[in-house]
Amino acid sequence: MRWLVTGAGGMLGQDLQSVLSGHDVVALRRADLDITDAAAVRDAVAGTDVVINAAAWTNVDGAETAEDAATEVNGRAVEILAAAAGKRLIHLSTDYVFDGTATAPYAEDTPHAPVNAYGRSKAAGEKAVLAAGGYVVRTAWLYGEHGPNFVRTMLRLAAERDTLDVVDDQQGQPTWSRALAQQLVALAEAAAAGRATPGAYHGTATGSTTWFGLARAVFAEAGHDPDRVRPTTSDRYPRPAARPAYSVLGHDRWSGTGVAPLPDWRTQLTAAMPAMLATP
Fold first, then answer.
1. pLDDT of residue 279
2. Is 118 among the catalytic positions?
3. Is 231 among the domain residues?
């Protein structure tokens, strides 16, 4: 198969290139392809068998004052990609399309109910992909060796501070970007084999924890005393954009595809940590 990866310069995009090493891949960064340019998108998509869209507006707080700009990238540009690629498109989305008020994992067919501008922009993109018969993969709490993320921040702060206060009232599924990249490739192969029908899938770790729990695990993996991390509440750190308090996603749609849900978040963190520690 011939693969196209958009957003190739990002954390997930770089992992996708690594996982697809040896395949026929065109990897395009933001400077290589403006996904809001319909003609350029049509040219880029032509002749490809799989399009994985990892390009996105990711500044959650910035979207509050620039919702139109966020929607241009996360909504209208995705509609352009969906029109060009159809069922060949695998599009990355987010837990932020849900409101975070659930008490059990969100099913893949749960209606959208975003609580911030970023979530609304991503929901718009999802609707376009699903209407075109493509694949949506929602992920959350993503970290990896390429680019800034929570795990990398905790490693830096462990070296700078004696103690650290981290919120303990938001629940989610820390997900290693390389493991997600492997799952996306497996989904594309399952789709090509007729085992995975178009629609929404959840690409998050199994199990769940809080940001406080994740921070303690990062400290422990890096050889630091996890008791240096102390719990606090979200109201101590007000942000422009509301955050879902519960971002745990279910994984039922993987059944029958031949692709397994991602491993437990703690197992993923242990596997990721050597690369995280080795990369400045």
1. 84
2. yes
3. no
